[in-house]
Amino acid sequence: MIPAAFEYHRPTDVQAAIRVLQDHGDEARVLAGGHSLIPMMKLRMADLSHLIDLQDIAELKGVSIDNGTVSIGAMTTQHELIESDELFRAAPILREAALQIADPQVRYMGTVGGNVANGDPGNDMPGLMQCLGATYTLVGPDGTREVAARDFYEAAYMTAREDEEILTRITFAAAMGGYAYEKQKRKIGDYATAAAAVLLTKEGGRVASASIAMTNLSDVPVFSEAAAAALVGSGCDEGATTAAISAMLNDIDPTEDNRGPVDFKRHVAGVILARAIQRAWSRA
Amino acid sequence: MTKMHIKLNVNGEPKEVLAEPRELLIHTLREQLNITGPHIGCETTHCGACTVEMNGKSVKSCTVFAAQADGAEITTIEGLGTPDALHVLQQAFREHHGLQCGFCTPGMITRAHRLLQENSNPTEEEVRFGMSGNLCRCTGYQNIVKSILAAAAEMNAIKEAAE
Fold first, then answer.
1. Domain B88-162 = CATH 1.10.1370.40
2. CA-based max dimension of chain A
3. Kindly report the CA angle at A62 between A56 and A32, in degrees rounded to 5?
4. Domain B4-79 bears CATH identifier 3.40.50.300
5. pLDDT in tens, A42-66
6. Which chain B residues are closer than 8 Å to A102 by Cβ?
């Protein structure tokens, strides 16, 4: 389990990191927490000759909340997300989701930027960021651009990020109202068999707005506008929940793997979404 | 590949090693520094037998390059207690039969040590959740949890007596 040899870089600013990416093209990869990349390197499934460790780049760290806008540096760890009371007040769904990722040791190292940028359909943060309507900031040789999380994912491990760009920051509006991140997994540390992120607000006993995204049920996260629309205006009763589940099932496209056959995954997706809607509504 | 000079502070002692960038921290500790308390179990980030503390975080040292740890403070089981002066956690594992074969124990205790630093009075559920990155294939966890709860009570009693 020893990776192939590579050269190690530890730049102290984003521009220096981008220069290494430019110099070495697809031979170079950035390293955040390393808990997806290092296992792949040990299996020799990730092939690279230059590793750019981002840990010393101060501008990539930390959470700030200003005028209802939450901004999270890409190198913020899952542990730091969980520990931030300020973040919990602005968007409590992040703590609920982060606590269901991997295990304590992995959460001390794993970062939110790595989680969203990797493009692994099993990762939890991409669906969550689509649910929140987050925006990713990408910095490259030609400057800075912003891409919506809902437009970022193209296929498994394929995203809108160019090879010479680094995802530096995630921003979204503070998420008020009811929330739930519900995840079914076989054991601690496993990826989801199915997971659902639900945000909704309540006015006069009815659902005023809703947002729903699903994890690990397609080769990309699934933001289901139709599922959310089925809830809006309803009393979030059983009929509306059933309609939302039907709409969600039209949007997902799971494949059979060691977590089960397609029919089972669709069944679990429905159960998980029902639970998530119920919990979000109870908190709205 | 050119070897790098890596500086670590391990259990309070400054250390310097030459390592290829691809060398994993667990290999540096075990093979270069002869610190063999952290074990290699699964080598795939699952089992937690290689858990050490790095700059106040519990990490699986099979999934950290020594180069990433350059400049870091590392604590291993060797830094917690000695055979003649066991740490409270080690004593509690001994008294409550928190181990059978002992292979996972250094990782268990090193992780439990950090857990109790962050939460000195955990519930049983918090112990189980906080220890979920460490696998034991002998004991069924019951006695491990019991040991950690006993150690937490003992550490709190010692702290109170000192105040």
1. no
2. 62
3. 45
4. no
5. 999 998 999 999 999 999 999 999 9
6. 133
